[in-house]
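User: Fold this; tokens only.

Assistant: Input:
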Amino acid sequence: MSNLRFSVYEHKLVYDGDHLLKRQLIVLKDGCGNIVGWTNFHRYAKSGKKSLARNLYSGPNKRCTMACLFLNYVFFDKYHIKKLTDVTTNMVKDFLNDYGLCNLPGDNERTHRGKETVNLCISQIIDFLDLMIQDNPQCKMKVDDLYRKEKVFSKTKKKYFERKVPIFEVNYRPKVKKIFRDIPEGAFQIIMNEIVTNHRNILMLAALSAFAGMRPSECCNVRREDSPLGPGIVFEVIDGEVTGITIDISEEKNLRSDLVNVGGIKKERKQKVYPAFIEAFMSCYDMYMS
């Protein structure tokens, strides 16, 4: 039984020809990756905030993935509980600290989790266990054993809100992680010339990233202006000159008949190409389309 692992299974459904619905389930897999059991744990992998209605089209998030890390930890890695209601406060404390200190199975010296990532994990695991305890009054752990509520003032929203704070201390290991963000113009020209010359199939991927600030997975969701699913690029033309370009990634659609995921949209929106880069973008676009 030690080779069993909890994992995320994603179910996809296409409706009205092009709309794509995704739902995640938490399943048990054996050492060969075969599903050997289905669970209902996914119903706890959601926000603890009360809501009267839920957006039907809201896509999957990472709550199920985070829940699987926790489930594998308490069922198989460090503890060996038989049912989720056997979980205790110490188990939760150990998991969150091992997560923050990068001591989980599979972590190595290159693994790094910053403060925001650790805080997100704390929030999602508390929400998961909060909903589980509410659904299972016989659980060994009670809400008061897990967290307390405190009021926090938001400087951006200019108001107070309640947040759940664990009753125990969670530690993380701070580490300065240098992110390479700014490419010198000379290096950028070399990269773009190489793409134009030898890798023109990814030219628009580079152009959308460089000139519209889009993520690679979002670029893969961009449709042509003449797409039967609706225009993905809209050009504003005045006197024969392109004066504005808008990329429509306001909704994830089914772009492949085999339902293979082309990548997710982190924030649904209509993204404009920065005005200073319109000429460069159009040069890449015309080259790519030809």
